[in-house]
Amino acid sequence: MATLPVPACRSLASGHGFRRPIDSEIPPPPSLRVRLAPLIRAPTLKTARRRTRWGWAVACSTSFPCLGRVGWHRREGSASLLSFGVEPGELLSRRDSAAADSSQALSALLPVVVAATAVAALTNPPTFSWVPKEYYAPALGGIMLSIGIKLSIDDFALVFKRPLALTVGYIAQYVLKPVLGLLIAKAFRAPSMFYAGFILTCCVAGAQLSSYASFLSKGDVGLSILLTSSTTVSSVLMTPLLSGLLIGSVVPVDGVAMSKSILQVVLVPVALGLVLNTYAKSVVNFIQPIMPFVAMVCTSLCIGSPLAINRNEILSSHGLMLLFPILSFHLAAFTLGYWFAKLPFLRQEETACRTISLCTGMQSSTLAGLLATQFLGSSHAVPAACSVVVMAIMGLCLASVWGNGSRIRDIPSLIFPQSCPDTDS
């Protein structure tokens, strides 16, 4: 057992000398000597003593980074522990980091998968026409479960620590976006077979892809996760309410039945994932690496099926008229979401403005497609399927522009470098 030097013991008895760590060169205790191969020169151990909450601790480092940290710690209620190399917590963090890297890699492929799904569904409908609408709910449940296993109770506690930024994003999501969709639908005179589905698409929660877009844009990823989580949970009430107000006079909307459907396919999987992440971490660690792939497959099915089933209507003259409202809606949503957060009385940081913009322009169109199929008719799911393709491509392109150091006011100069003078960022 290593013993402290005499001056330190005297200081321990007198209660003085603990305000600063004592840096000194002392030889390591015999129990801590590192034995290496004869051909390898023994590393120099640098040891520093410091006072911890429960007593003294000595941290030793070597000139060989592969050896990691060597030291002993006195813990309350347990014997002294000696660790060589990587600690268990570091192994867990590396495992989480690998899972995060795989999730980001699959998220980066999502726009390609979405575009390929749309092309395959429109050029060869049998590729996805075999998927019945009864599969939409389980597929969307798989997507929501992939969100739930990433959440914890502490994430929802952060809502009370960032009230202004979350309030701004929430208003943009459930006030600015539905009104914008209504104005665009009336301005472009959206076809009646797609009108209600288009408005419903503007009334759903934010998309989980917005978190990855915030990461690419160097925005506030934590705020994006909180916004997506809070709008997803509250969609049980907000989406049926907004749908009844905006399209109730055109198409009858059963708000109670819609709330029950959202409760089953959104809130239950998210709550299940939250419970697993809290009380069954080993299960989450097992399924988390494959959940991004599951979410990608489910998203592809929810997009490809309505596109394949309604191919003739989409490629007709009425279907082509739907393209302009969808493009205009997403372009305006990204722009207005950014400048809404920049208002003088709401002025947010640049990172928060980017996140709010992405969360406003990217919504859970898969949920809108499911609700449209169940309550409005299969043709009304077409705007949601088209919206997924447009918002994934536009959102990630915008995020890439921001990630390269440009601002939203610089985008015209990037597109037309000769006609628009350069502006200072």
Automatic annotation (TrEMBL):
It is found in: Membrane; Plastid, Chloroplast envelope. Keywords: Membrane, Transmembrane, Transmembrane helix. The chain crosses the membrane at residues 165-185, 192-213, 225-250, 262-280, 286-308, 320-341, 381-402. InterPro entries: BilAc:Na_symport/Acr3, Bilac:Na_transpt, Na+/solute_symporter_sf. It comes from the Eukaryota. One of its GO terms (cellular component) is membrane. It is a multi-pass membrane protein. Pfam families: SBF (PF01758). Belongs to the bile acid:sodium symporter (BASS) (TC 2.A.28) family. May function as sodium-coupled metabolite transporter across the chloroplast envelope. This is Sodium/metabolite cotransporter BASS3, chloroplastic. It comes from Canna indica (Indian-shot).
